[in-house]
Amino acid sequence: MIASLLIANRGEIACRIIRTARATGVRTVAVYSDADAQALHVRQADEAVHIGPSPVRESYLVGDKIIAAALQTGAQAIHPGYGFLSENADFAQAVRDAGLIWVGPDPDSIRAMGLKDAAKSRMIAAGVPVTPGYLGEDQSPARLQAEADAIGYPVLIKAVAGGGGKGMRRVDDAADFADLLASCQREAASSFGDDRVLLEKYILSPRHIEVQVFGDTHGNVVHLFERDCSLQRRHQKVIEEAPAPGMDPATREAICAAAVRAAQAVDYVGAGTIEFIADASEGLRADRIWFMEMNTRLQVEHPVTEEITGQDLVEWQLRVASGEPLPRRQDELGITGWAMEARLYAENPATGFLPSIGPLEHLRLPESARVETGVEEGGAVSAFYDPMIAKIIVHAADRIGAIEALWEATTDVEVWPVRTNAGFLARICLDEDFQRGDLDTGLIERRGEALTVPPEPEAEHLREVASALAARPATGVWSAALGFRANAAPRSEIRLVDDTGGVHIVEDAAPDDGEAQEEVVSFFLGEARGYRLHHPRGSGGAGAAADGALLAPMPGRITAVEVASGASVTKGQRLVTLEAMKMEHSLVAPFDGVVAELNAQAGGQVSEGTLLVKIDQHP
């Protein structure tokens, strides 16, 4: 077994790897940027090395610094986790050239599966079913248009080097093809430095099914069954489960055998995932499931596979990288029960899933579930990295039991002042189609506000709030069964504003003693699924306050100002666009009114909490 391991990653996956390494007696080395100097993974590792400034391109994506840190600390191997450099074949080769062990597949295998067109051609040769489409070298607009016409609409244009939902366009009509092709090529060139595309038949009732595969250096390849990752938002997975609902034994055998052939076709070693797209219009059928791509690394959702198989996939990775054979043969692997994983993000679903950045003054994660996290109370969600707070994983005897366990776990989340998608996740668990297993990749989009907008708090809950406020101490931090609160000045009437801008009035029996204290209140109200409330003058409400003050929800750059001082605006009208965390976020008017104050200027940099626009409501 490897004796010492450097983890070229951060956050929850770094902590996850450290846990298994410690259990198997492997010494660990963490790397960290300026922003992560006090991070959980840094303190959990046996040793840690600073590798640069906070931006990933100056730290976690600088392969030379990571290799130097491994050599400096005497680490034998490098585990890339997922994301960052995990699928960078050149980095994998550089690790080997430095005399270190790469905990991952051979660089040639990464290259073979890195470009979607070449990977699909290889899969066709291996007898793996692929989605009908065009993979040709002729990239002229005329040829691509002709191929799309032949495939039949709708078609999907995909960047050859794409990923993460970028470089993709759905085309429903031939007349729109040319414009959408040009748009896709521009985005592909900007994001990946490669504007080549391929075409696929667009599946109208798509299910995203993937199979966990594992290979070793002795020629063995096994699968660890399938996962269903169909619940997605903008091509990003939200809830994953294993096994896939509606998967019969014959279809499972066919798709898993195809996944093994795919791995064997590239001499695969280590953990990998073969992703398939299924046409679920008539249920899951072996003749309607096609190869999409291979992820040549450990997946974010690997815990659900661990839960149903009883295997530690990180331990498998370390043993395979040490030259050992796979710990289990195919006939020694089976499925027990049902597992689900929900990705808990620092984001506000009610405002278009705008990331929520800031300190984690209060953080309570469910004790009833397996939780993978890289943050803790007193830490912060940084603007430099993915805003995931945790992965919440549950396991039960059957699917309904898993759904109930996931609902219970997501309703038990308490985070303040950062907003999260916990209520959104809980509401998915209550969706009737999801509970029946009648799902596809468009379910979340179809539901819209039914999932994203939290329900109004019940009157009895507000009465509980009033009673609790009346009984609160005048100073200090108060914590009770309802939740967490920072100081608030006693008032005879408390005006509370929720995360959507809704206003609630509750009576407070405590006298006003005149003390100037911070007015911030947060309650977690059980059936309201982590509903948070705050006073208007408190620190919450960034981006869409009920009093008309629109604050920058995170540090960023103003890319557009679409309103002038004194102008009339209508509820929902876009006023300012902020670019942050590689995404554009629109700030909209919370109600009809007039622009009383405008502090935003296109091209300007703003810090979190900056007042950008103040709207006065029409009398």
Summarize the structure.
By secondary structure, this protein is of the alpha+beta class. It has six domains: 4-103, Rossmann fold (3-Layer(aba) Sandwich); 106-131 and 206-336, ATP-grasp fold, B domain (D-amino Acid Aminotransferase, Chain A, domain 1), CATH 3.30.470; 133-201, Dna Ligase, domain 1 (2-Layer Sandwich), CATH 3.30.1490; 340-453, D-amino Acid Aminotransferase, Chain A, domain 1; 459-534, no CATH class; 549-617, Beta Barrel (OB fold (Dihydrolipoamide Acetyltransferase, E2P)), CATH 2.40.50. The chain has an eight-stranded antiparallel β-sheet with strand order 14-13-10-11-12-15-21-19.
Weakly predicted, low-confidence segments: 474-492, 509-520, 527-532, 534-545
Distance between the termini: 73 Å
Range of helix content? 25-40%
- Total domains, how many? 6
How many distinct helices?
17
- The proportion of residues in beta strands is 25-35%
Give the strand order, joined by hyphens, for the main sheet: 14-13-10-11-12-15-21-19
Q: What class would the helix/strand composition place it in?
A: alpha+beta
Largest sheet: 8 strands, antiparallel
User: So what's the overall shape?
Assistant: globular
The top-level CATH class of the largest domain is: Alpha Beta
Spell out the CATH superfamily of the largest domain: ATP-grasp fold, B domain
Number of strands: 36
Oligomeric state as shown: single chain
Overall average pLDDT: 86
* Rg from alpha-carbon coordinates: 26 Å
- The CATH topology of the largest domain comes to D-amino Acid Aminotransferase, Chain A, domain 1
CATH architecture of the largest domain: 2-Layer Sandwich
